[in-house]
Design brief:
Length: about 550
């Protein structure tokens, strides 16, 4: 217990003390403290009644569930130091006092902090109370009678005597109406600041957690036919909420990262764009067929958001290189069946890396049609640890955990049950273009080699190269920015904003980009005499011919 000078009472407990007791010039005593408060209806009434019964007059009160769901800051006035001490002793015995100035740790014996899902049950008020002991307890009892859970409350008797700002969550609009009716009958003077769906922007409601703000804002953006998907998302909101809060904490430690509000805004944008483009709103962009050999035609499939998928069609089978977000899978299958494609013909799927926008269809294709899925051996660890920077040791590794979990849940990514590796090819070089050759595979008359990335973008990254036919499938490398539509640019900017960079190691990524450009420029020179055009099939934007990019010319200029 510490004492301050009578002339300079603090605005609250210092960071070094959980409570502070000081004597005023008039001889009364003032106690600043922090107290536990559970996130449930009636908790405020219990606390207020306890204080009133112990002759403690509440002078300041601050509770914001979004900041500390189980912690309230108080200033109470007492007639004597003895009364103050007895109050503290009793609160200690009741478990109301935290042992340190932090949010109380999770206690399995305590009820979980619930997620508010009904915006119609929210109500924000300004209430004017009479200047006498016990009025706060009377208000709290009215709230308890209607199962109204206080999620935000402020009161400062010095700055605004009698004025209480309060936000409560009830289970439905009928409870809100009943609560307002009783407040009217009680003779209390109050003003409704925000009520239900018609209250205005949800950002004005103080006390909602980050995930609740996120879900309510998402609900206002999605078309009506997407609300079922939103409800499913809400059911997993506890898990998603932890990921959001983890992301906020990790991003806050990175000076280059965005402000939290911008982070949530961009997550919201990605979710809204993706979920809102499913079902009747789904549109596939098809490029092809491009005849790349005597036996193989190439198609590029692009969903509204996410990465490109490349379909290699032969007489015997279809082979997929990369996929889009998992939430589009059902729509993709329906689209294919309506446009001359059969998902059951996709016997193999080769995935450049385990990001959600490239691996989303792999698991459902395997489950529905027995499609064999081939990826780097580290991909299974990325899925298992839910960290696209797993085992990279970079400063963004922790931040990538939260990013991976968020995108996984929003886009419905599931890991395939069985992931196969790449068979070694006798007679192939150990490296090509500076990248290790892991193995290869055959599609019709095209021989592919699998090159291992140096790890600049994500763990488990590979490139698929057909050197004799000049084809490179490289995921998020070598994107032709000029080919991106405004929609593509907006969508691609979202994950970039969510993290400082979508790359596990940007310096390594830049070096890999230079290596790939140099290699493809050299390959183009070798193929020109054969009349073959080297092409890059990137995960975003359009596929393009290497000769259009002028890489060889730039290399010559650099040499000069």
């Amino acid at each position: 217990m510490t004492h301050s000078t009578p002339s300079a009472p603090s605005s609250g407990p210092s960071k070094d003390h959980i409570f502070e007791l000081f004597r005023r010039p008039d001889g009364s005593w003032c106690l600043d403290l922090r107290a536990h408060m559970l996130d449930r209806p009636g908790e405020l009434a219990d606390l207020a009644a306890f204080l009133a019964a112990n002759n403690a007059n509440v002078e300041r009160f601050y509770y914001n569930r979004s900041e500390h769901a189980r912690l309230v800051r108080l200033r109470v006035g007492c007639d004597s130091a003895t009364v103050s001490g007895a109050l503290m002793d009793q609160m200690q015995r009741m478990g109301r006092l935290p042992l340190q100035d932090t949010t109380p740790p999770t206690d399995p014996a305590l009820p979980e902090i619930g997620t508010i899902t009904d915006q119609d049950g929210l109500l924000s008020l300004k209430v004017t109370l009479a200047d006498r002991p016990g009025t706060l307890a009377e208000l709290a009892e009215v709230l308890r009678n209607h199962d109204a859970n206080v999620i935000h409350m402020t009161y400062d008797g010095d700055e605004a005597p009698g004025l209480v700002r309060i936000t409560v969550a009830t289970s439905c609009p009928d409870q809100v109406a009943a609560l307002l009716a009783e407040l009217n009958q009680s003779g209390l003077h109050f003003h409704v600041q925000w009520q239900g769906m018609d209250g205005g922007p949800i950002d004005r409601v103080i006390g909602l957690s980050a995930v609740e703000q996120f879900l309510f804002r998402l609900k206002t953006i999605l078309p009506p036919d997407k609300l079922d998907r939103l409800k499913t998302l809400m059911k997993s909101s506890d898990e998603m909420g932890r990921a959001l809060l983890d992301f906020r904490r990790e991003s806050g430690e990175d000076p280059e990262s965005m402000a939290v509000s911008e982070v949530f805004s961009n997550i919201l944008h990605l979710a809204a764009r993706s979920i809102g483009k499913t079902g009747n709103n789904f549109v596939m962009r098809l490029t092809g067929p491009l005849n790349v050999s005597k036996e193989v035609d190439l198609y590029m499939l692009a969903c509204p958001t996410g990465g490109n998928a490349f379909l290699l069609r032969t007489d015997a089978e279809d082979v997929l290189i990369d996929t889009g977000y998992g939430l589009y899978y059902s729509d993709v299958c329906r689209w294919m069946q309506c446009h001359g494609f059969d998902p059951a013909r996709i016997r193999r799927a080769y995935v450049t890396h385990p990001d959600a926008d490239h691996a989303g269809w792999a698991a459902p294709l395997q489950e529905d049609f027995g499609t064999r899925v081939f990826m780097h051996q580290d991909a299974s660890q990325v899925f298992a640890h839910e960290n696209r920077a797993h085992n990279t040791g970079t400063r963004l590794q922790a931040l990538n955990i939260s990013f991976t979990r968020l995108i996984t849940r929003l886009t419905e990514l599931r890991p395939p049950n069985v992931i196969e590796g790449f068979d070694p090819i006798p007679g192939t070089p150990e490296t090509m273009g500076g990248f290790a050759v892991l193995g290869g595979f055959q599609v019709g008359d095209i021989s592919f080699l699998t090159l291992e990335s140096l790890g600049g973008h994500v763990a488990g990254q590979v490139f698929f190269l057909a050197p004799d036919h000049g084809l490179l499938f490289c995921g998020d490398y070598l994107i032709d920015v000029s080919s991106l539509s405004e929609r593509d640019k907006q969508t691609l900017s979202i994950p970039k904003y969510l993290m400082t960079s979508t790359n596990s190691d940007s310096r390594v990524f830049s070096r890999e980009m230079k290596m790939l450009r140099r290699f493809m420029a050299e390959l183009q020179k070798q193929l020109v005499p054969q009349g073959i055009t080297a092409r890059v099939c990137s995960g975003h934007g359009g596929l393009y011919a290497v000769e259009e990019m002028g890489w060889a010319r730039k290399q010559e200029d650099t040499k000069e």
